[in-house]
Design a protein that fits this description.
- Pfam families: BAH (PF01426), PHD (PF00628).
- InterPro entries: BAH_dom (IPR001025), BAH_sf (IPR043151), Zinc_finger_PHD-type_CS (IPR019786), Znf_FYVE_PHD (IPR011011), Znf_PHD (IPR001965), Znf_PHD-finger (IPR019787), Znf_RING/FYVE/PHD (IPR013083).
- Keywords: Metal-binding, Zinc, Zinc-finger.
- This protein has about 220 residues and is mainly beta.
- It folds into 2 domains: about 10-135, SH3 type barrels (Roll), CATH 2.30.30.490; about 155-210, Herpes Virus-1, CATH 3.30.40.10.
- Helices cover about 10% and strands about 35% of the residues.
- It contains 3 helices and 14 strands.
- The protein has helices at about 105-110, 175-180, 190-200; strands at about 10, 15, 20-25, 30, 40-50, 60-65, 80-95, 95-105, 120-125, 135, 135-140, 155, 165, 205-210.
- It has a 6-stranded mixed β-barrel. Strands 2-3 form a two-stranded antiparallel sheet. Strands 11-14 form a two-stranded antiparallel sheet.
- It starts with 7 loop residues before the first strand and ends in an 8-residue tail after the last strand.
- The structure holds zinc ion (2 copies).
- One zinc ion binds next to loops.
């Protein structure tokens, strides 16, 4: 008997029956990891395709890496819901899709009123062979000069607009949450005069992602 020709066609959308959700090209999804003790993989659907009978649905995905999966590992400034858009593509069976999720931009993530289970954010692209990030520099804040981790409480100085971790400026977190107005040491009234002259620094200097301290 002649084998049927393997004609595959692209689908705009597809209903994943076991989760009862419609997936479309461009959606972000959670996929079952090969090691079930690991968290679900996060992926963006680049293409959905089926065989001529509309079965055997496969998806072309572009993986998001979690910080733990990157060459440099998880760093202190990585958020718990942070993922990196990698250059690693794959073909997977649609059966491995466990659910849909949303990968927000960094900005929209920090503006969420509540972070749901299925909310993630991405601020870096990641080269899976070299371990390089794009952008390779990010703004840093506070006395500790760290990139912003959206999981950490920070308070903003009304003088210089820099953000500070309460613990880095010896303020208790509960106190920090109650503060209506905050001026950092440099901007506190006693130092105001001095500041008038040195106010130019709006911290546009950036840090290399793979170095801890800001380059001077
Ligand atoms: Zn700090
Ligand atoms: Zn200040």
């Amino acid at each position: 008997m002649a084998k049927p020709k393997l004609v595959r066609r692209a689908l705009d959308s597809y209903t994943v029956k076991h989760i009862g959700k419609v997936i479309c090209r461009g959606d972000c999804v959670l996929m079952r990891p090969s090691d079930s003790s690991k968290p679900s993989y996060v992926a963006r659907l680049e293409q959905i395709e089926a065989d001529a009978r509309g079965e055997n649905v496969r998806v072309q995905v572009r993986w998001y890496y979690r910080p733990e999966e990157s060459i440099g590992g998880r760093r202190q400034f990585h958020g718990s819901k942070e993922v990196f858009l990698s250059d690693h593509f794959d073909i997977q069976s649609a059966d491995t899709i466990e659910g849909k999720c949303t990968v927000h931009s960094f900005k929209s993530y920090t503006k969420l009123d509540a972070v749901g289970n299925d909310d993630y954010f991405c601020r870096f692209e990641y080269n899976s062979s070299t371990g390089a990030f794009n952008p390779d520099r990010v703004a840093v804040y506070c006395k500790c000069e760290m990139p912003y981790n959206p999981d950490d409480l920070m308070i903003q100085c009304e003088g210089c607009s820099d953000w500070f971790h309460p613990t880095c400026i010896e303020v208790k977190p509960e106190e920090a949450e109650r503060l209506d107005h905050f001026y950092c040491l440099d901007c506190s009234p006693e130092n105001k005069k001095k500041l008038q002259n040195s106010r130019v620094s709006t911290r546009e200097t950036d840090v290399k992602v793979d170095t801890k301290r800001r380059r001077r």
